[in-house]
Amino acid sequence: MTKKELTGYIYAGLASLALANSFIFSKLSFEYVNFYQFGFFWFLTGTIWNFIYLFTIRSRNKFSFRKSARGITKNLMLVSILEAVATGLFYYAILIMENPGVVSFIGNIGPVLVVIFGVIFLKESFNKIQFVGIVLALGGVFALSLNGFHSLNDLFKPGTQYVFFAAFLFSIATIIARKKRETIDPGVLSVVRAIILFLGFVIIAIIEKLSLSIPIKAWVLLSLGSFLEVFITIVFAYKSLQYIQAFKTSIIISTKGFFALLSAWIFLSLTPLNIEILGGVISILGVVLVSVQKKK
């Protein structure tokens, strides 16, 4: 491993750590606010962090928001809306499910869906190694989602369906973004997604006449969580891409579930079950096999 590669792995690892702990902050904030209050303040601060990122870090690389704004196309808006809905569902799953680390691991089904949809819509193909990866990832996610065999209604843990649907929407958005990658800027996509989510919760707040008065501790948790999810994760992942290939960054970030389980144990006193650890390991192994073959 060269010094350059090591630097890239460190940045990717920090991005994974930041993203995992943002899930913990979101879970902690639900002790003080309801889901609609959470969405309003989380994506308000998230929008602010996005703009700060665009006009500081990205501006050094000759980023022009005005030029990019003129380039906002139907495809970018479609991807933004899909990702916005998926993000809302993901955080709703964190609200419902006990351990946010499990939510993170179940989300590893996303790369599998991307490969499958790539075959269907982009006429791509996968080989035997990728097929094994798909089977392993699905098996790991199934183990993580399993609640018991008492009845069909209680087969999966509550909230699993929201993670599945979120991963489905994210994968569709990824396929569209991959096909139209020349016209979609990730930085603009991120800020447009945050604005859509914020405006959506603003409308809900007006309709439901929600109180926007929240405890200071909740405000701190929401601000720090969105800072980790939006600003730190994006910056470190972006820096990682300057040193290592994108598929390697993706693999490292897919390990965020381990960091989330560890943080949940420390801050939420949630001891991970053996089946959750095993399922997480298997799902990541599947992601590795799927992603390595897609490095081009």
Average pLDDT for all residues: 84
Task: Identify low-pLDDT runs.
Answer: none
Tell me about the largest β-sheet: none
Provide the gyration radius in Å: 19 Å
Number of helices: 13
Query: In which range does the helix fraction lie?
Result: over 70%
Percent of residues in beta strands: under 5%
Class from helix and strand fractions: mainly alpha
Order of helices and strands: HHHHHHHHHHHHH
Tally of structural domains: 1
Count of DSSP strands = 0
Gross geometry: globular
Subunit organisation of the chains: single chain
Report how far the terminal alpha carbons are from each other.
20 Å
Using brief descriptors, characterize the structure shown.
globular, mainly alpha, 296 residues
